[in-house]
Design brief:
alpha/beta; Spore Coat Polysaccharide Biosynthesis Protein SpsA, Chain A; seven-stranded mixed β-sheet; two-stranded antiparallel ribbon; 8 helices; transferase
């Protein structure tokens, strides 16, 4: 079984303090939409957030955990998820992708046998411009010692972690600029809203 994980531990500081996981997207709060997509794909979903009080709108079946060590960015959130999950495979997504869809999640989940067998440690989408999307990826929990060792050196870069494990790139056939569009600032959200209304 694959564990769905939503990383929502950030401060939303560039969003002017407004929690981006609660922004209305397609008629529902973004984190509710993201959770629903994960549950449709892998059934189980947990959330890494240091603000559980914001997330009372989620069903009780969704567990919420704070970062084990704060201020470690997404890599610290992944480490916490790997510690608390009872599953070896984790489908990890950020909380700020309003165009995320079930197709890309299902494509990633298809790689589960290769991760289970040890052929791969992770599968990460790769955009046409060569950029990787490590915050929408499938990971095996065996890489937790690698992550913890890296964090002990105060290096929080996702790229450093990817370079240290066996990763397969998943070429994205969809419009990757759209599917991985991030909401980081009020301007990003305004741009998304204009496109959504069209």
């Amino acid at each position: 079984m694959i564990q769905g994980v939503i990383l929502a531990g950030g401060k939303s500081s560039r969003m002017g303090g407004q929690p981006k996981e609660l922004l209305p997207v397609k008629g529902e709060p973004l984190i509710v939409r993201t959770c629903r997509l994960l549950q449709q794909t892998v059934q189980s979903c947990l959330i890494i957030s240091n603000h559980a009080e914001r997330l009372t709108l989620l069903p009780p079946s969704v567990s919420i955990y704070p970062d084990d060590i704060k201020e470690q960015g997404p890599l610290g959130g992944i480490a916490t998820a790997m510690r608390v999950s009872s599953h070896d495979l984790l489908l990890v997504v950020g909380c700020d992708m309003p165009e995320l869809n079930e197709d890309i999640l299902c494509e990633l989940a298809l790689y589960a046998p290769k991760l289970k067998s040890g052929q791969l440690d992770a599968v990460v989408p790769k955009q046409a411009d060569g950029r990787l999307q490590p915050l929408c990826a499938l990971y095996h929990r065996r890489i937790l010692p690698v992550i913890l060792n890296q964090l002990s050196t105060e290096n929080k870069r996702m790229r450093t972690m990817l370079d240290a494990i066996n990763v397969a790139d998943l070429p994205v056939q969809q419009d990757s600029t759209q599917v991985f569009y991030n909401l980081n600032t009020p301007a990003d959200y305004e741009t998304f809203r204009k496109e959504e209304i069209r």
